[in-house]
DNA sequence: TGCATATAGTTTAGGCAATGAACTAATTGC
DNA sequence: GCAATTAGTTCATTGCCTAAACTATATGCA
């Protein structure tokens, strides 16, 4: 297939994907939407039907004239979203429209287990979800896996995941999803979650910085609805912006990084709450209780985190010219106490650049990484449908 | 002309532009370079010759066989690079290969004069250079104008140039270069200078942050040899990264920005050297003398600037994932004294991420902004030659 | 009920711009 | 001086588009 037809195929498929949920555009509507004429649209739609990416879905019409045949993304095709985190693994089935159909979480300590057993457990969970997909009549085309660390997607390699204690782990082809035509793609967790935010907040501006509070502080930079990854693929690491030159040492080897005052461990320590890997979620619950009870140490810890988060965001804003922030992870949970010091700090360090309504909370929550990883695989398929047509 | 042919035209012209200086590729060589066959290359070359963008230039051959006809960018076409700065205006003629053929600088205080007289003076200087171009047999196709401030290129408007005291100045079409087919495009000075660095350091990596020390501190972010401008076009403003949360107030309204410790005024003040707009370049010379004499106050001021510059670069590096820095403006001048504290600071705040050879000095120097503005206009013409053919 | 109008989708003709192979032109090397 | 080699052109073919005509199927009003 020639380049021209290939890109027009993506154009037509993208136009179907862009239609709001429940709206099934006809071939004629696709022609006007894409700027192509009806002739090639009909022929491209035929290809996409053959490839199983589109499906005819009743009528699309309202007014006079012959009714059109509605077209939709084939609901019988899907992608697995997967996640490996410090204390759980998860897998979910996402259809081509981005709907989460099946979701399985298995809690386990992945820090002490080796990489092999964890990947085997993930493959098992993925197999379970894939079987469930089969019962729904959904064929799984590929998968996206989010991990809390730096990845090299091209090499399917996890470069380093400090909180898992992993480094240079390569994902063998077919190990997780044997036989899936698109294989499994790797993503950084915060980046994937940022992409999920894009998908799930339609009109809400397509330029923002997603900041995710986890054990560390992750970030994803979305510009023009696309992830900005920088030359080596690791942009958006706002957790290591220097916010206090005379601050304490960071796990990255640096000094005074945002993570040293706004990561979970830092906040818990400052609040005087003990935490280790296995009890961290319990500790975070204790922190919220302490905040609700108005305990001064807890309030001061969150206050400090908010203030320094503002410093980091103000700096980031000037470097990449982004005016919106989405808070995720524990930053979303702590928002009631974090928000005031954060906004005050933004007002001090970047006056006139952030209005309060530009600091919003994550809408996808916990499953964001999984949704985003799967959604990104879907998106790349819609942008390049020939990957499947061969 | 169809889209396909249009993009292939750019492909062929780009292949000629990519050839090293003095090498004149033949049609057959262009065919292999572009992946097209000889037939369309011949026909596209014909179009480009007609448009005056290419010229036949003797033979291209070495080995056996029929010699090819060499092709080069037409040296009889050029673009004006222009600059308005605090204490001078400048204009230069740049040919399509990026060579600076004519260069005129006129010193004048643009801060006290109004925008109208300054623009009129610039138009006069541009006219002079254009006349000189005519004597060289070079036709001026358009121009690029660099200013020290934020610009909206689409609207040909200078949004704000604090050091000039300008805000919302619109460049009327034809005011500076009447009749030039491409008109005049606006650029931020540091961004333009960054682009000039790209052009003039061939193999030296195409991802870097250009940091320019001026009255303020400007920056340009180059990723994949392209300027990264962010969603609103103002990315790279590293001068307003917060390096000291408890620092002093900045002209931007913020607190503790890099500019408050590393801008010219800040360094001069810390070194105990008086400065105003008219004597600033003299003051900088005094500073260098003081440094050479080993005066403690001067050394401490530059030391502090270097240390905080390192903080800002370490943070920027994590946000945009850039591992190379090019120092321009007074940072290049002060390099002998600035370098050690800068490297030490980078080692402390971003350990293992910057090696000393990744901190380099500007190769284009003073005329960088002018060269970059003109070069960018040339580049956009080469990427879209139909702008001229129509 | 029936016909004008409107819209969907297919068919046919035509055009642009590519590829591939054959052909002509100009040079080197033995 | 002729074979080998490379440059550039010509011609036939192909891919894929647009434009317009045509067929199919609906609505709305007399």
TrEMBL record, chains A, B:
Record Gene3D superfamilies: 3.30.420.40, Winged helix-like DNA-binding domain superfamily/Winged helix DNA-binding domain
Molecular function terms from GO: kinase activity
Keyword field contains Transferase: yes
Superkingdom, taxonomy of origin: Bacteria
Keyword Ribosomal protein: no
Any Pfam family: ROK
Keywords: Kinase, Transferase
InterPro entries xref list: ATPase_NBD, ROK, WH-like_DNA-bd_sf, WH_DNA-bd_sf
Family to which the UniProt record says this protein belongs: Belongs to the ROK (NagC/XylR) family.
PANTHER family for this protein: BIFUNCTIONAL UDP-N-ACETYLGLUCOSAMINE 2-EPIMERASE_N-ACETYLMANNOSAMINE KINASE (PTHR18964:SF149), ROK (REPRESSOR, ORF, KINASE) FAMILY (PTHR18964)
Name this polypeptide is given: Transcriptional regulator/sugar kinase
Organism: Arthrobacter nitrophenolicus
């Amino acid at each position: 297939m020639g380049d021209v037809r290939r890109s027009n195929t993506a154009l037509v498929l993208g136009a179907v994907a862009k239609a709001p949920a429940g709206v099934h555009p006809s071939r004629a509507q696709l022609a006007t939407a894409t700027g192509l004429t009806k002739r090639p649209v009909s022929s491209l739609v035929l290809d996409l039907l053959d490839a199983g990416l589109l499906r005819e879905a009743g009528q699309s019409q309202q007014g006079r004239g012959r009714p059109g045949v509605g077209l939709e993304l084939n609901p019988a095709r899907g992608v697995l979203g997967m996640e490996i985190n410090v204390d759980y693994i998860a897998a979910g089935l996402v259809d081509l429209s981005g709907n989460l159909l099946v979701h399985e979480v298995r809690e386990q300590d992945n820090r002490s287990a080796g990489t092999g057993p964890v990947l085997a457990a993930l493959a098992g969970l993925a197999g379970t979800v894939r079987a469930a997909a089969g019962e729904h009549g959904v064929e799984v085309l590929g998968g996206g896996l989010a991990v809390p660390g730096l990845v090299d997607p091209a090499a399917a390699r996890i470069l380093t995941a400090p909180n898992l204690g992993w480094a240079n782990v390569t994902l063998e082809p077919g190990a997780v999803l044997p036989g899936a035509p698109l294989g499994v793609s790797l993503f950084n967790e915060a980046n994937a979650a940022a992409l999920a935010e894009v998908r799930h907040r339609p009109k809400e501006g397509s330029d923002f910085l997603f900041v995710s509070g986890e054990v560390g502080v992750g970030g994803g930079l979305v510009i023009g609805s696309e992830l900005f990854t920088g030359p080596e693929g690791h942009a958006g690491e706002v957790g290591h912006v220097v916010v206090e030159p005379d601050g304490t040492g960071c796990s990255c080897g640096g000094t005074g990084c945002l993570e040293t005052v706004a990561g979970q461990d830092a906040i818990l320590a400052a609040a005087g709450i003990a935490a280790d890997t296995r009890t961290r979620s319990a500790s975070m619950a204790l922190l919220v209780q302490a905040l609700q009870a108005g305990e001064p140490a807890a309030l001061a810890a969150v206050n400090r985190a908010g203030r320094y988060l503002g410093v980091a965001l103000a700096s980031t804003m000037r470097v990449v010219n982004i005016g919106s922030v989405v808070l995720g992870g524990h930053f979303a949970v702590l928002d009631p106490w974090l928000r005031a010091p954060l906004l005050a700090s933004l007002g001090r360090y970047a006056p006139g650049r952030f209005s309060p309504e530009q600091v919003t909370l994550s809408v996808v929550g916990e499953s964001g990484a999984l949704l985003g990883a799967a959604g990104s695989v879907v998106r790349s398929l819609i942008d390049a449908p020939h990957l499947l047509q061969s």
